[in-house]
Amino acid sequence: xxxxxxxxxxxxxxxxxxxxxxxxxxxxxxxxxxxxxxxxxxxxxxxxxxxxxxxxxxxxxxxxxxxxxxxxxxxxxxxxxxxxxxxxxxxxxxxxxxxxxxxxxxxxxxxxxxxxxxxxxxxxxxxxxxxxxxxxxxxxxxxxxxxxxxxxxxxxxxxxxxxxxxxxxxxxxxxxxxxxxxxxxxxxxxxxxxxxxxxxxxxxxxxxxxxxxxxxxxxxxxxxxxxxxxxxxxxxxxxxxxxxxxxxxxxxxxxxxxxxxxxxxxxxxxxxxxxxxxxxxxxxxxxxxxxxxxxxxxxxxxxxxxxxxxxxxxxxxxxxxxxxxxxxxxxxxxxxxxxxxxxxxxxxxxxxxxxxxxxxxxxxxxxxxxxxxxxxxxxxxxxxxxxxxxxxxxxxxxxxxxxxxxxxxxxxxxxxxxxxxxxxxxxxxxxxxxxxxxxxxxxxxxx
Length: 447
Ligand code: FAD
Fold this sequence. Notes:
By secondary structure, the protein is an alpha+beta fold. Helix content is 32%, strand content 31%. The chain is built from twelve helices and 23 strands.
């Protein structure tokens, strides 16, 4: 059987973003996916909705409710911290498949049941409504989320965590969500305008005393009923069906790219859902993936550079989100003896979320960057807080500017002369030069 080009497995946010990016670049791409099998609601920030809009996902966006308040009861304090848009994930995933077809991406609706990979050839077996089907591709994008087989590669795992999701139905009402800490974990609750409510209890796998599966429904109902903050979500509502258990342990695959394959989204690394950043991080890795794939396919001399770019970025994102989660867990100090909180406030390490930057530690180095759909090597500014390097700020390459400023004495140079230097050497208008300088100063790049 002739190979199809690129096959993407999985039609969640990551698979969709990778498919659209590759199709826009004119790459031959087929996506194989089935919508998720269980109902779930998740919350995302405005920037995620904007990113999805930018991809041209029209149907999938219909699955989002308008932004609503996200309330928090954390460390005993009540806050109406921000807003989030609640998304019906089953509807979203179905919409993604329709959108992809609309955007001209070849889609096979079905479940991948087998995958055999040899160098340059990936053979798939797929269960579709019309029966079994085979497909061969020369490049594989693995985007099946947490369900993606690990292939035996090493993984970094956070503290083992499980989330129990219980669906309740009540009368129509207001949309909104709330997060709160409890002694053995945390709860997230969401209400949709049509009366659906999704209540999620996240606990520690090792220490949670969970009942047998058949008693989980009553257990979850009792846990939610025992909490004041859950009352608005339970009012006049009934639990429906059995709770769904979702693994929510943070996971980093140590092997995320090869010569003819790449992992994106949760298949590469999955974050703790407490941050509410899962879809955001899945998009982050998938939006850059097309440039990596195109480089691997068309510019083998830069294959190692492209692989380094993807692998380092995934690892960097993983630890960044892990530390954000750690710091959020550490803010909840009511249960110092609780195994749940104790294990999470120290993982993954004690390194600060943002490493302090002193001008002496800022250096210029060669590093991989995305340029016109390829990964190439350029001068970037590397700092303890930006170990992957900064190439462009507001469309301007900053390494040559920093080098020029340093050569002339950095901040020892009088302010007007610094601006004049950038204008003369790099053709900037004075206001733009002043903005770049202010930005560098805020980053502590210059003595
Ligand atoms: P997924 O969205 O998991 O997509 C994978 C796709 O592949 C699915 O459509 C699936 O059906 C398909 N698939 C799987 N196996 C096969 C197969 N064999 N054949 C064909 N198709 C297949 N993120 C947020 O931003 N906000 C939240 O509030 C939030 N809450 C969460 C709560 C919990 C308990 C958990 C576990 C996660 C939560 N997340 C949240 C994270 C979010 O769900 C993921 O990070 C995000 O969906 C990852 O996108 P993805 O495209 O990589 O994978």
